Amino acid sequence: xxxxxxxxxxDDGIWWxxxxxxxxxxxxxxxxxxxxMVAAFLLVFYLVNLGNDFxxxxxxxxxxxxxxxxxAMVITVWMLLDRFPLWIAYLGALAELSAFVAFxxxxxxxxxxxxxxxxxxxxxxxxxxxxxxAVTRWTIYPVMAFTIPYSVFFGPAVGTEHQSGxxxxxxxVFFTVIGMFVGHYVKRRFRQQTQVDxxxxxxxxxxxxxxxxxxxxxxxxxxxxxxxxxxxxDGFKEINDQDGHDAGDRALKELVRHLRSSIRxxxxxxxxxxxxxxxxxxxxxxxxxxxxxxxxxxxxxxAWSFGTAQARADDNLSTMILRADRDMxxxxxxxxxxxxxxxxxx
Length: 346
Description:
Largest sheet: 4 strands, antiparallel
Strand order of the largest sheet: 2-3-1-4
Number of strands: 4
Order of helices and strands: HHHHHHHHEHHEEHEH
Distance between the termini: 65 Å
Shape: elongated
Number of helices: 12
Keywords: Membrane, Transmembrane, Transmembrane helix
Helix content: 55-70%
Low-confidence stretches: 1-13
Radius of gyration: 27 Å
């Protein structure tokens, strides 16, 4: 029986990943893995292309430069793994778009023109999956708006079968737009399914790791403070025991709605699990976070406790949350002591 379960687990995984070197299997960021695979494919393509005859020494030098560029991309992914910066991928996409403009608009190289026309919608899909919609639109649309009309009416390949006819032009535009739409949609759905808690709509642990780490890095880069707050609901177990789990679920949803309506733009609400939540406050000191949480708590219909912590030079999210957890339980003990003292006096 255990052997059957192991076989099923292997079948459910990405089977071809076992063909990769062990170092590359350590990549967890899908966008980095896709960038590495695309760069590796283009490297093979450009190496094969070096065997062709070139019309001029300049074209040959450009072909060598493309090999060097894709090789550098592959090596960078190999060296940095998940630390690979996406701005390098953007530069690589710009290089491919420049080749699209050069070959489709200003050459008569039939093989390259056909390849670039086929590649263009894939570049749009790739960029729309990796980068924000505005970045993709302002990159793809100007290139397409210039290159296609110029190549059809003025370029040296006017009248050839891949340049003439409205059907070819409409197909390129259609598949490019569809590719961008699909890329943005898949990106949103992927983030929603992997980074958002299905019950409450708050970020889950994966979302906290992705967006919280990015906020922490940004705070260090710009030398701005960052604070976190950890909270859990008071008496949540009693709600589940007395009124049922549906009532507990409603309480969690109500809490997240209240938190979201009370925090600022750019703040994060994340559910760790159960009734524990983490809030991330960029550009905020611990004192400011404390005041903000007290204000939110004062207007909440539900009872909960919280603790806060501010980022230090050697911190990560885990150490910050641990300090906030200690602060929360210290606050609970203090309130319990105060209630006991009041009861004794009465």
